[in-house]
Amino acid sequence: MDASILDNIALHIDINKEEANHFLSLLEYKSLNNKEILLQAGTVCRTINFVVNGCIRMYTTDEGGKEHNVLFAPGNWWCTDLFSFHTNSPSTHSIEALEETKVAQLTHQNLEKLCLDVPKFERFFRVLFQNGFIMYQNRINSELSLPADQKYKSFKKLYPGLNQRIAQKHIASYLGITPVFLSMLRKKYNDIN
Asked: What does the alpha-carbon distance between residue 150 and residue 34 come to, in Å, rounded to a whole number?
C-alpha cells in the first residue's frame, strides 16, 4: 500500500528512506464502501486524498438536485477540493466512492508540517497542484469547444479502462450528455462488452 504512494511521489521528487518514513507517518488511511461519501458539500475539506485503489468522483449538485461530475480519481490519483482545503471554507463539491476504495489522507496541518520538515515536498505539491489546474483548464476548454464524441475520446485517454468500471450515468454526467447518447457513442467505438 505504501509503495504506490511513494512511487507516485518519486515521479516528481527524490526522497530518502527517512523522509519517506516521515511522510508515511503523517498519513491516515481510510476504506470506503461503494457510494460512501468522503466529503459532503457544505462541509470543510480537511484532507488531500491519494487513491490507493478503487475510484472516487468529485461532483457538484445544482439547485434542481442534478449531480454534475467534475472529475474521477482512480487508483494512483490525488483528489481534494483545493479551495475548501486551503481556505477552510465550506466545499461546493462532494466526493463519493464509486467502488470499494482505499485512500491515504494528509490533513492540512500535516501537509504544513511535512513541507517545513522536508522542504522538497513543497515542490511535489506545487507540481501536483499545477497539474491539477492544467487538467481543470483543459476540461473547461473541452466542455466549451469539443463535440461529444471528442469529449468521449478525451475521457477514454485521460481515464483508460474507467469506462468499463463505473456507471454509465456518471460518465454521461462528466461529459454533459445523456446516458442514451453515451450508449450510442460506446457502441460507435465498440466499447460495449
From this structure: 29
Fold entry, domain 2-145: Jelly Rolls (2.60.120)
Please report the DSSP string for 126-182 in residue order: HHHHHHHHHHHHHHHHHHHH--HHHHHHHHHHHSTTGGGTS-HHHHHHHHTS-HHHH
List pLDDT tens digits, range 73-111. 999 999 999 999 999 999 999 999 999 999 999 999 999
Please check whether residue 102 is in contact with residue 32, taking contact to mean a CB–CB distance below 8 angstroms: yes
Q: Is the dihedral of CA 90, 82, 1, 75 positive or negative?
A: positive
Give the predicted TM-score (pTM) of the model.
Answer: 0.91
**Bridge partners, 79 (sequence order):** 49
> pLDDT digit string (tens) for 12-66?
999 999 999 999 999 999 999 999 999 999 999 999 999 999 999 999 999 999 9
